[in-house]
User: Which sequence fits this backbone?
């Protein structure tokens, strides 16, 4: 089934809006449409109050001192974005959301997750955000003045078919937001398994047909555990069915997952 047909079946017409671009000499009403679209995309359809709006960034955009891409960066680096998608979230969830909000797609594979975990660990929060917005992929698809949008639900070169299913899992539905702190794709990406299209209430929809596979999870223990055990880096080997609860337990302990590798 093609992407357009699947969109109709799944009721995704609301996501199939034309990309929004800030044109030269835009009116104030047109500017407000762009600003609201950036907030909706980058903040994951969260409702924000007037007091939470980034008035300084909006003014710079109004005066054309910055571009839409610059405004996207301001929103993604804001305390509001951090409180919604960084604080209290696992690294995997944070990276999932960065892909969705800033590139309009889901992570393609485990190597992309590992790459961004390494960027954050080595260079910090701002560098992780910049790695999306300064990428060739961002510039080629959105340029300076197009608001990022969910690209994976459209037929486009460079987007794998599996990207549609994973992006739909992250989207959930037009009226939902991204307030959930749990990673949605960690098992399907780590196992390189297909992601079934299910309703949001049915979880992340991964196809659990990889029960024979085993995976090594490498993680950094929290400081308390590290003092007791004399080291911070730890590893464990799990089956596919054990992966999700193990990951949850690692996150609950305050530890940070560094990689998940399939064992041959």
Assistant:
């Amino acid at each position: 089934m093609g992407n357009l047909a699947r969109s109709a079946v799944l009721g995704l017409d609301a996501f199939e809006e034309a990309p929004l671009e800030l044109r030269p000499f835009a009116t104030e009403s047109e500017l407000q449409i762009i600003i609201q679209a950036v907030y909706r995309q980058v903040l994951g359809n969260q409702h924000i109050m007037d007091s939470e709006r980034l008035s300084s960034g909006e003014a710079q955009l109004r005066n054309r001192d910055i571009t839409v891409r610059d405004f996207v960066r301001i929103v993604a680096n804001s305390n509001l974005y951090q409180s919604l998608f960084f604080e209290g979230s696992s690294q995997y969830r944070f990276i999932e959301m960065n892909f969705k909000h800033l590139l309009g797609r889901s992570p393609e594979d485990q190597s992309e997750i590992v790459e961004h975990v390494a960027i954050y660990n080595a260079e910090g929060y701002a560098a992780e955000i910049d790695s999306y917005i300064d990428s060739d992929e961002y510039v080629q698809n959105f340029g300076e003045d197009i608001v990022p949008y969910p690209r994976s639900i459209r037929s486009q070169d460079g987007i794998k078919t599996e990207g549609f299913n994973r992006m739909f899992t992250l989207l959930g539905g037009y009226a939902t937001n991204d307030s959930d702190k749990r990673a949605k794709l960690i098992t399907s990406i780590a196992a390189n398994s297909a992601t079934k299209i299910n309703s949001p209430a049915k979880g992340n929809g991964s196809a659990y047909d990889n029960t024979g596979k085993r995976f090594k999870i490498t993680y950094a223990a929290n400081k308390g555990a590290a003092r007791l055990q004399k080291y911070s880096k730890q590893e464990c080997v799990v089956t596919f069915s054990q992966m999700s609860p193990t990951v949850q337990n690692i996150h609950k302990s305050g530890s940070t997952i560094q990689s998940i590798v399939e064992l041959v």
